[in-house]
Design goal:
The complex is a heterotrimer of chains A (641), B (479) and C (164).
Chain A: H1 2-5, E1 8-10, H2 16-35, H3 37-61, E2 67-78, E3 81-89, H4 91-114, H5 121-140, H6 144-162, H7 169-202, H8 213-216, H9 222-239, H10 248-251, H11 257-266, H12 271-278, H13 280-283, H14 287-310, H15 314-334, H16 338-365, H17 383-397, H18 403-417, H19 421-446, H20 465-480, H21 494-503, H22 514-540, H23 554-560, H24 565-603, H25 607-615, H26 619-640
Chain B: H1 9-27, H2 34-54, E1 59-61, E2 66-68, H3 70-90, H4 93-97, H5 101-120, H6 124-142, H7 149-180, H8 185-193, H9 201-218, H10 226-233, H11 236-261, H12 266-289, H13 294-315, H14 319-344, H15 361-364, H16 366-379, H17 386-400, H18 404-430, H19 444-462, H20 465-476
Chain C: H1 3-24, H2 28-48, H3 52-77, H4 87-110, H5 127-135, H6 139-160
Helix pairs in contact in C: 1-2, 2-3
The chains are: A mainly alpha (641), B mainly alpha (479), C mainly alpha (164).
């Protein structure tokens, strides 16, 4: 359906888009220290800049339904199964390319200022460039395996960057947590790929190419497609921090703020959404999976929004807000509105990156302070940061005519016209919550009386231009990117015309009666307005009470600790697993051998004895194990005869 | 009887080098002994060149007791590459630890000769003698660090258990000889392929005892007990040599003898092999997690990798064997490289091999740490490194052969393994302290070995096709 | 049962008894002497199987040279302190041995004869026949065995020589 209508052209330029950041990364690895901190950073930023320029050029060249393709070489080939190292760009990829290189470039520039005083600057830019490379691999790969390579690669970079400030053990632990939780998701992802390969292989089709796969989906039974898509979605749940695997994202805020903006808001965490959109031909015919995705998305959106209300850490609020917005995207995917999901991904990348970078600017100004209870009244100190923050907050809250308004409204309208009123209702309530917690943050940080600690106060300063210019660019994007996808009753959607061909038969924007659509929008706007008003009434004038976690009561405490999900996982998963491993190493292995040797009666003489005996590495014990296994094999054989 | 000497060439080349090194050792001064390493490298390089020139030949000699085919040459290349890396990474190490250089290098070469014979053997007697030549040399190498009690203990243990396993192997060979009337694999397989009523039951027992012997040599659970103790005690370059070359040699013989020539017996050991594969992967990985020493962790990790390789054995002919060969090639540089990095940490003949000793290595020796990260990620099966392409083919061959469950267990296991491989990277980059920068073994040759292994790890991940093609043609040369 | 078989069973019985003696005897010298007896009995078995050359070598090499070395080492080291005997070990060993025997005996006795049995003629194990096959069919293994022995010698010297 896609391949039949689109024209494929070869464009050898494509390979340079990911390769240039990789080259810069390699140069910095080998000569970074020699070049000096400044040059290394500029080099890294320039490389991403070149990639951005190339991406823009490709975008300009790309015809509406066309696909550019670039084959480097055949990576893996065995029999009829072939995996190429080749890139492709269609409308969907082109958008992702612009997000990754565009926002990536701005954040590189910003980092030049933000990381100026950090000793590990070279290392930072090496990781950052490597991340851009893997992310581009992820979005540009023309087959599932290449996507997987990028998928794993960005996970690794994310892990390295979260733990970047390794001096604090907390950061290292957060990095580990991110990595391991992601691996749980990856397990599903890999198994999904395996199942897809096996099932198609059984029909004699050995391929993982995105261009080939849609032709063969009809060979699979509905049950198989459901299972495959569910497994793939598990991967998306891990990477895009949905319930129940979202726990790593708030902790990942331990990384430097530009990293949070780039990886944990704009790009990597949206990889799950991108993957489902890329494989829409698999997901669309799996209604059961879609409804699960929609429910998980909606639940995550609501749940994370409630948690965000109670957070006092400026970045934690944004982290939970990201989780919540990703929930919106999956909600859209779940009702088959892939185009709307990608649209929200696109606008979200701008305003969330702007918010993160703005928070970075605040943190930078306050010498690393992240607690909003120790901020307030910063409006006059940081005017540029303030105004960009206001714009981005308006956008995320969904105030009319901002980017967030259009994209969120599109999702909600799709849910409504799709007939999923419950999902719509959750979405609308979440929109109100979003407005509330974002304005709460805005007021707590920039308005009211200053609660900044005295020793910090004299140093408060606006960030340098290298940091504020990206903020301004992103703030502009936070308004105007949304205008691309305006509803029909305004000036119509450029977006749908651009992206819709990619999704072919999948759901497009559904247009019901215009009056209903406007009415539905008005309901949302009203609820958003209430949310903003409540935040204003509660936080704008007086500043907020300082509530320590222990003293807080009831619902507030539940929210503050994000429903104790972390503790819950620790109890039911982490600790038992650790214990089993220890048990195996200390008790089981020696016991199997010694148990045979000493007999049950002697076991009572205490583990310590056994432990010590096994520690000596007694050869006889080993040989007994050896002999017992041989005997078992022999007896197995004799039963066969 | 035909007695073309060409098939003997690679083995004879290494043997000759060993003899030259051993004899020359008597006539040169203490401080000139470094020369011996260069002679060893030269001999290995010549052997490598011969193996390349002979690629594609298919010739038997001495009544087809020894075959020179691509299969033998593929493994020969692995053996000599690993032997050369071992020599490179030991050049400083042997001085620091007071190991006698002449004997050390010549024993490495003797062991390599034995391995080459094993991979080329087409006769159970020849195979057995090759195996023993390799084993005896490696027993001695294990115990060569005389001032370390751990080393002597490891050698003693290895020897005792190896002798025990040899007994099983030899008895198995005797039973097979008794049943088929020959030790030549051509004749044995001709016997097995004849349409006939029933094989004598002790033929199965013979095959089973071979299986046990091989299981010991590759370190399959539950024949693995020797591995952690011996790997930990042996001088580190020798451990790398053992973990890669010895294991590869055992798998070479396993593939040629059990998988290929005795394949009519396959149906009888399908289930035990599956159990072995699952147990080996799972136990290896689970126990690796709780090891405090990186060297010991790598020992358990090598057990786990033997488990993945067993999946290739279970998957059987064609894809299984091809991916087995390819997996060995991808496993080799990462494992050897990791041991070479541990070698680097040896300080004044005191081993420093706990996780804590790796702390901050990322800042003290950025290149070494980066190489080590590559090795760990490759072993964990991280794309696009060698370990990933290797695992991909192994698991895929299992799926094609209808063992999807094994593939899934393998995937689960490789996810589990991330926990302990990652810990090394965490220590290197996210902690400080550890071994002082001054006390590393600063040898350009050791760095070269690490660098070569790292380059191979990337190369086999990014451009695997050529090696895969070689594995395939090596496998098809068995027919 | 013919005379040869009766002879075989008597020899085999003696062999088992003397082998057990090696294991159970607490005195090391006695144990070594029992081993000499066992090796002799094996040599006689070889002789009855028309393999005089192997039989003679068995006596010369094992019962002769190697056992003398054994005894020499034993007297040299004069081991006094013996490890405490542990019943469970014995129990397990006995169990394993019995299981092994139980598994192998039916397999080995029940089998069909191989279809190409190696004919044990009068000359089968004589020096001439042995030399012929050693230097024709098995010349390669023969040569490799020499490498193996060389490695073993080098190894023994390396591990045993006094450190400077």
């Amino acid at each position: 359906m896609v391949a039949s209508t689109s024209t494929v052209a070869t464009l050898e330029l494509l390979r340079w888009i990911p390769l240039i950041p990789l080259c810069a990364c390699a140069i910095n690895i080998f000569f970074g220290r020699a070049l000096g901190h400044r040059t290394a950073g500029v080099l890294a930023s320039a490389a991403v800049g070149v990639s951005l320029a190339l991406a823009l050029y490709v975008f300009w060249l790309l015809p509406a339904t066309g696909i550019f393709h670039d084959l480097l070489y055949t990576w893996i080939e065995s029999g009829s199964f072939r995996v190429n190292l080749s890139f492709q760009v269609d409308a969907l990829t082109a958008i992702m390319l612009l997000v990754v290189t565009g926002i990536g470039f701005l954040i590189h520039i910003y980092s030049l200022g933000y990381m100026a005083h950090d000793d590990g600057k070279v290392r930072f830019f090496i990781y950052l460039n490597l991340f851009i490379f893997f992310m581009l691999l992820l979005v540009m790969g023309d087959n599932l395996l290449l996507l997987f390579v990028g998928w794993e690669g960005v996970g690794l970079c994310s892990y390295l960057l979260v733990g970047f400030w390794y001096h604090d053990a907390k950061n290292t632990i957060a990095g580990n947590k991110a990595f391991i939780v992601n691996r749980i998701g990856d397990l599903g992802f890999i198994l999904g790929i395996f199942l897809l390969v096996t099932e198609l292989g059984r029909q004699g089709i050995w391929t993982l190419d995105f261009a080939e796969l849609p032709k063969h989906v009809s060979l699979l039974t509905p049950a198989t497609i459901t299972l495959i898509t569910l497994l793939l979605f598990v991967g998306a749940v891990g990477k895009s921090a949905q319930i129940p695997l979202f726990v790593w994202l708030p902790d990942a805020m331990a990384g430097p703020t530009p990293v949070s903006a780039l990886i944990h808001a704009a790009t990597m965490v949206t990889a799950g959404v991108y993957m489902t959109a890329r494989l829409h031909f698999l997901f669309a015919p799996a209604p059961y999976t879609l409804s699960i995705i929609a429910i998980i998305g909606a639940a995550t959106a609501f749940f994370a929004a409630t948690v965000a209300i109670a957070q006092n850490d400026i970045k934690k609020v944004l982290a939970y807000s990201t989780v919540s917005q990703l929930g919106y995207m999956f909600l859209a995917v779940g009702i088959g509105a892939f185009s709307a999901a990608i649209f929200h991904l696109f606008t979200h990348a701008f305003f969330k990156a702007c918010l993160f970078l703005g928070s970075g600017s605040v943190i930078h100004a306050l010498d690393g302070e992240q607690d909003m209870r120790k901020m307030g009244g910063l409006r006059s100190y940081l005017p540029k940061t303030y105004w960009t923050y206001v714009i981005a907050t308006l956008a995320i809250a969904g105030v009319p005519l901002t980017a967030g308004f259009f994209s969120k409204d599109l999702i909600l309208w799709q849910a409504f016209s799709h007939g999923s009123y419950a999902l719509w209702l959750v979405g609308v309530v979440t929109a109100g919550l979003t407005a509330f917690y974002m304005f709460r943050q805005l007021f707590m940080v920039f308005h009211g009386s200053s609660r900044v600690e005295d020793h910090v106060k004299p140093h408060i300063h606006e960030s340098p231009a290298v940091m504020t210019v990206p903020l301004i660019v992103l703030a502009i994007g936070s308004i105007f990117t949304g205008w691309l996808g305006a509803p029909e009753y305004l000036w119509g959607s450029l977006w749908d015309r651009w992206v819709q061909p990619v999704f072919g038969g999948a759901h497009g924007a559904e247009h019901g009666p215009v009056t209903t659509e406007i009415l539905v929008t008005l309901v949302t706007v009203a609820i958003v307005a209430i949310g903003i008003y409540l935040a204003y009434a509660r936080y704008a004038r007086t500043g907020t009470r300082v509530v320590p976690a222990e003293a807080a009561a009831g619902l507030y405490r539940v929210l503050l600790n994000s429903y104790w999900i972390d503790e819950f996982y620790d109890r039911i998963a982490v600790r038992p697993f650790t214990r089993v491993s220890q048990w195996l190493a200390q008790i089981f292995d020696p016991l199997v051998i010694d148990g045979l040797v000493n007999g049950v009666a002697k076991v009572a003489r205490g583990f310590s004895l056994i432990w010590r005996e096994a520690q000596t590495g007694n050869v006889q014990h080993y040989l007994i194990g050896f002999l017992a296994a041989t005997l078992a094999l022999l007896i197995y054989y004799l039963r066969q005869l | 009887m035909d007695a073309s000497l060409i098939p003997l060439l690679p083995g004879a080349q290494v043997l000759l080098t060993a003899l030259v090194v051993m004899l020359l050792d008597l006539f040169i001064d203490e401080h000139e002994r470094g020369l011996l390493a260069w002679i060893s490298l030269l001999g290995l390089a010549l052997c490598g060149a011969e193996a390349i020139l002979l690629w594609g030949s298919s010739e038997g000699t001495f009544g087809d007791t020894l075959l020179l085919d691509n299969f033998a040459l593929f493994f020969t290349q692995i053996f000599i590459a690993v032997a050369a890396l071992t020599v490179l990474s030991s050049m400083r190490y042997v001085r620091e630890t007071g190991i006698h250089e002449g004997e050390f290098y010549s024993l490495i070469l003797f062991a390599t000769t034995g391995m080459i014979v094993m991979a080329a053997a087409n006769d159970l007697m020849v195979f057995f003698l090759g195996l023993e030549t390799m084993s005896v040399a490696v027993y001695v190498l294990t115990g060569m660090w005389r001032s370390s009690a751990r080393s002597s203990e490891a050698a003693m243990k290895y020897f005792l258990m190896g002798a025990f396993a040899t007994g099983f192997l030899l008895y198995g060979i005797a039973l097979i000889y008794g049943a088929t009337g020959s030790t030549n694999l051509n004749q044995i397989s001709a016997y097995l392929l004849e349409p006939q009523g029933q094989w004598p039951p002790y033929l199965f027992v013979g095959g089973l005892l071979l299986l046990v012997g091989f299981g010991f040599k590759v370190g399959a659970v539950p024949f693995h007990f020797w591995i952690p103790d011996v790997y930990e005690g042996a001088p580190t370059p020798v451990t790398g040599f053992m973990a890669v070359a010895v294991k590869a040699a055992a798998f070479a013989a396993w593939a040629r003898i059990l998988m290929h020539e005795l394949s009519p017996l396959d149906s009888d050991w399908a289930l035990p092999l599956r159990v072995l594969a699952i147990a080996t992967m799972t136990i290896g990985n689970l126990l690796a997690i709780s090891q405090p020493s990186v060297k010991r962790m790598l020992a358990y990790s090598s057990i786990a990798h033997a488990g993945y390789l067993l999946i290739g054995i279970v998957a059987g002919e064609e894809w299984g064997s091809t991916s087995l060969l390819f997996y060995l090639a991808t496993y080799a540089p990462a494992t050897f490289g990791a041991f070479a990095v541990i070698t680097l940490l040896t300080e004044q003949d005191k081993p420093k091999e706990d996780y804590g000793h790796f702390a901050g290595l990322g800042f003290k020796r950025p290149f070494v740490a980066m190489a080590m990260s590559l090795f760990m990620l490759s072993l964990a099966g991280f794309p696009p490194l060698a370990g990933f392409t290797g695992k991909f083919h192994i698991f895929r061959s299992a799926i094609i052969a209808g063992h999807t469950d094994l593939a899934i267990i393998g995937v689960l296991n490789s996810l589990l393994s991330v926990i302990y491989y990652l810990r090394v990277i965490v220590m290197m980059y996210m902690n400080e302290g550890g071994v002082k920068g001054k006390s590393f073994i600063e040898s350009p040759y050791l760095y070269t070995a690490v660098g070569l292994a790292a380059a191979a790890t990337i190369y086999l991940g990014v451009l695997p096709m050529r090696t895969l093609e070689w594995s395939r043609s090596a496998f098809s040369s068995l027919f | 049962m013919n005379g040869a078989q009766v002879g075989f069973f008597i020899l085999a019985g003696l062999l088992i008894v003397s082998s057990l003696w090696v294991v159970f005897q607490r005195n090391v010298v006695h144990s070594a002497m029992a081993l000499v007896a066992a090796l002799f009995l094996v040599a006689i078995l070889f002789l009855t199987l028309n393999a005089p050359m192997v039989g003679v070598l068995q006596i010369l090499v094992y019962a002769g040279a190697i056992m003398v070395l054994f005894l020499f080492v034993i007297m040299f080291l004069n081991p006094i302190g013996l490890e405490q005997r542990r019943r469970l070990w014995w129990g397990f060993g006995a169990l394993a041995g019995l299981l092994l025997a139980g598994a192998l005996v039916p397999v080995l006795t029940n089998g069909d004869a191989p279809r190409d049995p190696v004919v044990a003629t009068e000359l089968f194990g004589g020096p001439e026949e042995l030399a012929r096959s050693l230097f024709t069919d098995f010349v390669l293994p023969f040569e490799i065995a020499s490498i193996l022995l060389l490695v073993a010698i080098v190894g023994a010297v390396v591990l045993a020589k006094r450190e400077p």
